[in-house]
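To: structure desk
From: M.T.
Subject: fold request, one chain
Message: Could you run this one when you get a chance? Sequence is below, nothing fancy, just the single chain.
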Amino acid sequence: MYPEPFLNMMKSLLGEEYSTWLKETENEPKRGFRINPMRIDQDAFFRISSLERVPSPFAENAYYNTTKHGLGNLPEYRTGAVYPQEPSASSAVAAVDVHPGMRILDLCAAPGSKATQIAERLNNDGLLIANDIHNRRSLVLAENLERCGSTCTVVTNNDPVDLAASFPGYFDIVFCDAPCSGEGMFRKDDEALAQWSMDNVLMCADRQRTILDSAVACLRPGGLLVYSTCTLNTMENEENIVWLCRKYPEMETLPLSHTHTRPGFAIGKGTEHAQRIFPMDGGEGHFVCVLRKAGTGERCDVPFRKTCRLPAEASSFLSDHFERDFPYIYCSKDTYYGSTAAMPETGSCRIIRPFVRLGQLKNKRFEPDHALAMNAYSRPLCTVEFDDQAALDYLKGLTRPTDLPKGWYVCRWNRMPLGWTYSDGRILKNKYPKAYRIRG
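Reply: Done. Structure tokens follow.
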């Protein structure tokens, strides 16, 4: 049962559509997924997958999940070919032209639905810094970006103020999917509903303004700020846009297409340029506003870290097992990382994952990391192809007999990576991380 103050607010917002909205909330929540073009194209995906092809109108490569089960245990998900995403949530990244070569900041990125979508559009060319202030959530964020195969993403765990201090005027686009009261998630998130109150809405709105201060500071002249929430009230949405434009006169709203969405409520400063999605529009609920920072100046720069050389054992392993070398190599605490982007100096910011963790030297032998197998850039040379059942067995941690020569191999399902295995000449030893394995 929804709280009475919330229902009264929705009556005021929706007017004659209130009863349509209320009836829609009685239905099952909408679920969706995106296909990762760094892994597979859409036509090829639907030739190998049992998932139905029901397109979502909110973004390219996005579809409704019409099945009753989740995706987490499917090889489609474990290879990074798909990412589960509430349909309307994909609209924020789709609202702007993200293309290779850009510097992008996702300021409140966990668990990673928008960050992986951004990474897919960068296609390993550019720089994405994906940040979350909560440590545990930032670890989940790193795992999701690893699975999608991104090689140009740095995952950080910081207060947005720290990023603003380290990267003033640096980014072409800043995404701020702000923590909110989650009114658009009530059908699927009982906790969000239980925690709702007008006091919580006001607290969220105030916190969002603090985050927006940092977002503006990180943005270069002429750059774009994408502000989004999964909530429905105006206080966390249009009213925050009005506040932002008044505090920062250099920021102006840009008109968005409303072909499959509806305009924001017109309360000043161009808030009607924003887009809204309600449950009766085909998604759970989302607000997106794009703003441009005045000017056409160059991006401010920060120094880049010097790359390092791989030790001979690691270099030999990579050249034997992959088609392409990483252009940039970094080392931290005996662990080596590779990337397709130069690593900027991050000041006092805490880094969770700098690009792709390649592996470690252990007793003068190179031990490859799971992330190396999953990267979507370097292309493995030594592979083992699994059918559906073999892939499922692998994801459960099982071994398989083999006559392959001794050595490391990337296990693949439909030519997409699952992880490492090691052949001793008789058995394929399972190197899939224990924390990721399917139980039961």
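Reply (cont.): The two ends are 36 Å apart (CA to CA). Let me know if you need anything else for the meeting.
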